[in-house]
Design a protein that fits this description.
Largest sheet: 8 strands, parallel
Distance between the termini: 15 Å
Bound molecules: nickel (II) ion
Radius of gyration: 17 Å
Strand order of the largest sheet: 1-2-3-4-5-6-7-8
Order of helices and strands: EHEHEHEHEHEHEHEHH
CATH superfamily: Metal-dependent hydrolases
Number of helices: 9
Number of domains: 1
Oligomer: single chain
Shape: globular
């Protein structure tokens, strides 16, 4: 059985078939899905899904794209939300310098505030880092108090950086792009870091893996990410399934 460590089943692209997708998971080899929030409303929806379905767990957080919409109260509202449903993390939070949908100084400030919330609540963080590798690393390094843990979602940085995160108590999660032929860097990272620190995810409805590129992504496609990692590391699919699931259960205390 696999665990999809990062899926946005609250996304409106699942409005027509969300329940069917969720109920089909177990019979098709996906035991659990972690659904992070991307803004406040989506965090509420993620929590609702985790209340309604025993195989869905939620994270609450404001994505860097929406950092500009946060105010002083948002962190308190997120904190309240963690008391409902099955909330296992703060996320997804981080920095995105590719789209720059929020000003960078605001992104950094809101990232830090949400890390502090995670530390206060003793919850792990789910980190989004797109083209912001150094700033993301520096903030996590500065905020690391010995108890902060988390996962670098849809990892896209270097092998060296991955090893630094692992040393800081973080996991590295791979998504659809690792299945692409030209994805040299993620493939290299997956080869060089131990399976004990790897998670797999879809980030659906985005980042659809081969051979389904171009279609809407969904949690069942996490099998293609698992298959690619098994191939890269020369281990069985079952070993990837078993170890990555154990890693998710360990980090999120499931
Ligand atoms: Ni995501």
């Amino acid at each position: 059985m696999l665990i999809d460590s990062h899926a946005h089943l609250d996304d409106r692209r699942f409005d027509k078939d969300r329940e069917k997708i969720i109920s089909d998971l177990k019979n098709n080899g996906v035991e659990i899905v972690i659904n992070p929030g991307s803004n406040f409303l989506s965090s509420v929806k993620a929590v609702d899904l985790s209340s309604k379905f025993d195989n869905i767990y939620a994270a609450v957080g404001i994505h860097p794209h929406s950092a500009k919409d946060m105010d002083e109260d948002t962190v308190n509202l997120l904190s309240e939300l963690t008391k409902k449903g099955k909330v296992v993390a703060i996320g997804e939070i981080g920095l995105d310098y590719y789209y720059d949908n929020s000003p960078r100084d605001i992104q950094k400030q809101r990232f830090r505030e949400q890390i502090k919330l995670a530390k206060k609540l003793n919850l792990p963080i789910i980190v989004h880092d797109r083209d912001a590798h150094m700033d993301t690393y520096n903030i996590i390094y500065e905020e690391q108090n010995g108890s902060l843990r988390g996962v670098m979602h849809s990892y896209s940085s270097s092998v060296e950086m991955a090893k630094k995160y692992i040393n800081m108590g973080f996991y590295i999660s791979f998504s659809g792009p690792i299945t692409f032929k030209n994805a040299k860097q993620p493939k290299q990272v997956a080869k060089e870091i131990p399976l004990d620190y790897i998670m797999i995810e879809t980030d659906c409805p985005y980042l659809t893996p081969e051979p389904h590129r171009g279609k809407r992504n969904e949690p069942l496609n996490v099998r293609y990410v698992a298959g690619t990692i098994a191939e890269l590391k020369g281990v069985s699919f079952e070993e990837v399934a078993q170890k990555t699931s154990k890693n998710v259960r360990n980090l999120f205390n499931i």
